[in-house]
Amino acid sequence: MADQQHEPPPPPLPSRHAVKIGAIIAGAAILVILLIGLLPKRSQKNMLTKRAEQAAYNDSIPEVTVLKVTRGSLVADLTLPATIQGMHETPIYARSSGYVRTWSADIGQRVRAGQVLAIIDAPDLDQQLVQARAQAAQARSVLEYARADVQRWQVLYRDSVVTKQELDQKQATYEADLATYDAAQAGLTRLQKLVSYDRVVAPFGGVITARNVDEGVLVTAGGGANNANPASLGGATIPTPSSGQVTSAGATSTSPSGDAGSVTSTASQSVAGTATAGAASVGGAGGSLFQIARYDTVRLYIGVPQAYAQGVRAGLDAVVRVREIGGRTFKGRVARTARAYDASTRTLLTEVDVVNSDGALLPGMYATISLKFDRSFAPIVLLAGGLIIRTQGAQAAVVDPDSVVRLKKLDIGQDLGATLEVDSGLADGDMVVMNASDDLRDGQRVRPRLEAPTGAAGGQTPGGRPENPPAATDSSSGKKGSKGGADSVKKKSGANDSTPARTQIPLQSPGHP
């Protein structure tokens, strides 16, 4: 009885309300667990689906590299090739025919003005001179007799011994004999001048650059040496044409008549602008006995393209360089221009003079001339990679703000190799496709990728798509894998190396964010 009295009472049974609350809490916990487990997978599945759709869309639209065109500088820097010439260069011809008795000047020798270079023996000319002197003496005797005769007839006419008609006949005879004497005297003077040409002299001081004669060689007037062998003589280092004709630019200079050793020298310089050089050259020296040049000051001829010719003027500074004389530049100055364009090359013939006091620049050297001048306008500059050559001519693919390609025809002003100056066809700020593929068409939609102006338009396949596109993130990697993929793309884009960064222009498509 005592044990029954101290037994604890049984626990109270839960109420129906408490049971309902417990069931609700348990159901909520189960629902939360299900949501935590299912929603991330569903979100990841939706994200992967969108990425797949975006990748498929991107594969259907090619990606191209574009570059914004800019204008060049107002200061033009132009470099052109040229050939160095002496300020005075002339071939020296024989004026009389005969055999060379002796010569006294060889190649590389400096001579002064009037110095005898060669002496020619012309015995037939000497005999003609003797004959001319005799004819002049005979004409003088006849003239003296006619003068005395007419004087006597004048006295007889005053005494009315002879008629006026007879006096006039004697006067006419005297005047005819006077004309005969003048003709004989002129012939004698001409032969005396020809004989004086037996001594070939230098027309000005300079350096002998070619010698085409030797002792005993037959020379003809204006034709040079008939049997000379310039190569064996060591003097003909300048190739010459076979004929000794003078071009339209040739000039003839003769020493004073009072000099016993006068010489006629013919300098012919034919100046013609060419597509690559635009330089002047010395011609018409075929058959010359010697060639002489003075190059204490040298001159160079260049053909300035029409696009730059407006800035070239007399007095403009120039810099001359010769590759064989490394590390040294020569200051020159534009002396004159032709003030007319060559119709075949559209270039302006320009002469540049350079003081050559130490003789470092020699005639015939190849050199380059650099000019720097201001232009009236700055042209649009396009990299050569943006040029498209098709049957329609020179074109460029321009991407409009809607990411649509528009092919525009170009008018090229100057082709500078790596860059082009465009006169018309492009506007400031145009996005030009670099290294466009052959299948790129007008009106085609593309995905443009902007490239830095200093970067090269590389990394493109012929189809216009990147060679190594970023791989899609593995679905099993989750967020960590997505972060790793972004890091790899960032590394490829050039953020951690020296390659120029490229900016991806966003492309909006219907239904594809």
Jot down its keywords:
7 helices, rod-shaped, disordered C terminus, seven-stranded mixed beta sheet, single chain, alpha+beta, six-stranded antiparallel barrel, 27% helix, 32% strand, 513 residues
Overall pLDDT: 75
How much strand?
25-35%
Query: What share of residues is helical?
Result: 25-40%
Low-confidence stretches: 228-284, 455-513
State the separation between the terminal residues, measured CA to CA. 86 Å
Described by strand count, sense and barrel closure, the largest sheet is:
7 strands, mixed
Number of helices: 7
Q: What is the CA-atom radius of gyration, in angstroms?
A: 49 Å
Could you say which structural class the secondary elements and strand pairing correspond to?
alpha+beta
What global shape is seen? rod-shaped
By DSSP, the count of extended strands is 28
Q: What is the compact description of this entry?
A:
This protein has helices at residues 2-5, 16-60, 123-158, 164-196, 230-233, 306-309, 478-492, and strands at 63-68, 70-71, 75-92, 98-103, 110-111, 116-121, 199-201, 206-211, 218-220, 224-225, 251-254, 264-267, 269-271, 280-282, 290-305, 317-321, 329-342, 347-355, 366-374, 380-383, 388-390, 393-399, 405-409, 411-415, 419-424, 431-433, 447-451, 502-504. With 513 residues, the protein is of the alpha+beta class.
